[in-house]
Amino acid sequence: MQMRTLTTLLLLLCFSAATMAQKKDRWENLSSLNAWRNFKSPTINAQWKQNPKGFMLSDAGGGDIITKNQYENFELQLEWKISPNGNSGIFFHVVESDDVKYVWQSGPEMQILDNEGHPDAKIKTHRAGDNYDLQSCMVETVKPAGQWNKVKLIVNKGKVEHWLNGVKVIEYQLGSPEWEELYKKSKFKDMPLYGRGGKGHIALQDHGDVVWFRNIRIRRL
Fold this sequence. Notes:
Blueprint: H1 2-25, E1 28-29, E2 36-38, E3 48-50, E4 54-57, E5 65-67, E6 74-82, E7 87-94, E8 109-113, E9 149-156, E10 159-164, E11 167-173, H2 177-185, E12 201-204, E13 211-220
Antiparallel strand pairs: 1-13, 2-5, 3-4, 4-13, 5-12, 6-9, 6-13, 7-8, 7-12, 9-10, 10-11
């Protein structure tokens, strides 16, 4: 009887471990606007238009959008292209609270930019792929405006990796002494929730320019 009980427990443990592994490997499709809403709103602005493989912000005024779900440790993959002289961004661990008016006040950003045309490209930490206003890319891999760029953003136990077009361009550890030094020198130094959410929403930015996103998917780590 004891042997049978022990065997049953072992089988249950193995089944539980296998189920957890499957959940971690399961990709969630975020290419539909049904997975998103405007920041601090239950709905989404009509300026965000659905496309067969993704969506676009057709004009200014659409507002920043966030995922309906929240994520802590994850791998996000997507493709983006920006209009000439355009600007946008990808944020993570975005918090909705009374102390946060904009997604960029809590969520670190992987910058989206037309490096060839936008004036922000003159600032070293404001270029495409950068850890916005904190770190610049180790190498420039962005494609020109109007061409698709592939992103892989990994956040796992505070370790963050920015990948752009198959190349790891940024790496940092949230909360590390190095991060704190960069944070204190940035425009976010007076924003106490910046990079400290621990988990939160993924956000895409309306910076007033036309931008496209497609093949968006995420898996929890």
